[in-house]
Amino acid sequence: MSAVRRVVIAAGDAWVDAVATALLDRLAAAPDLRMCLATGSTPLPVYDRAARSPESFAQASVLLLDEFGGLPADEPASCDCVLRDHLVDRVPLAEYRSIDPDADDLAAELRSIDTWIDGGGIDLAVLGLGRNGHLGMNEPGSPPDGRTARVDLAPTTIEGAQRYFEGRAHPKWGVTVGLRDLLAAREVWVLATGAAKADIVVASVDRPATTDVPASLLRNHPECTWWLDDPADS
Ligand code: PGA
């Protein structure tokens, strides 16, 4: 049965506090939680806040949701660097699995991510929401049964990613955990803030599910929570 919850909270600290508290509550209930975590910009203040309780993470495992391809090794806007800065390097973890899109044997790297997922599934996927409804780098039209894959970014995603790279060369492709495994996560949270997300929130939550809006496929998920601030719900 579908159980999509829409939780709307005042923008700013109240929203950050609510989501971070919920995350710490999940970890208290299941310390060995297997999480798949997004970067982008939306979840970062939540990770910052949750990382103030580092001991909560000591038995948890984290899988990076996606990663840009073709970046220099020291690129600070890589998803790995961003997640390390805001969470992974600040807390003890049982395990952290990043993604290497530039691995010599990419097929083996993709299989290895799928093997990680198959080793216990994903208990909680914390996702952002692309302006086009993408989840991770699963752009509109991505197969709902797709697993970890190398993907091309949609033009709007490439354009949107420019703000992370501040004038440096920005990527046009990446590797993402596939929709199959995100839809199969025991629990999914989608984090969306700001008025710029309001239209795609409506398309994702209030309209029929379609592969044209990957986030709308979560409508049939048994445990999905949309954490919205007021402007994103406007
Ligand atoms: P954002 O990105 O959190 O920076 O808005 C979300 C996404 O594009 O998936």
Describe the overall structure.
The protein has 234 residues and is an alpha/beta fold. β9, α7 and β10 form a beta-alpha-beta unit. α2 packs parallel to α3. 43% of the residues are buried. The model has no long low-confidence stretch (mean pLDDT 96). Bound molecules: 2-phosphoglycolic acid.
Characterize this entry briefly:
By secondary structure, this protein is α/β, with parallel strands linked by helices. The chain has helices at residues 13-29, 44-50, 79-88, 106-118, 155-165, 179-183, 198-205, and strands at 4-9, 34-37, 61-64, 66-68, 95-97, 124-127, 149-152, 173-176, 187-192, 224-229.
Average residue pLDDT: 96
Gross geometry = globular
- Are there runs of 5+ residues with pLDDT below 50, and where? none
Q: Oligomeric status of the shown chains?
A: single chain
Describe the largest sheet: 7 strands, parallel
> How far apart lie the N and C ends?
27 Å
Percentage beta strand:
15-25%
Written as H for each helix and E for each strand, in order along the chain, the element string is: EHEHEEHEHEEHEHEHE
Helix tally equals 7
Strands of the largest sheet, in order across it?
1-10-9-6-2-3-5
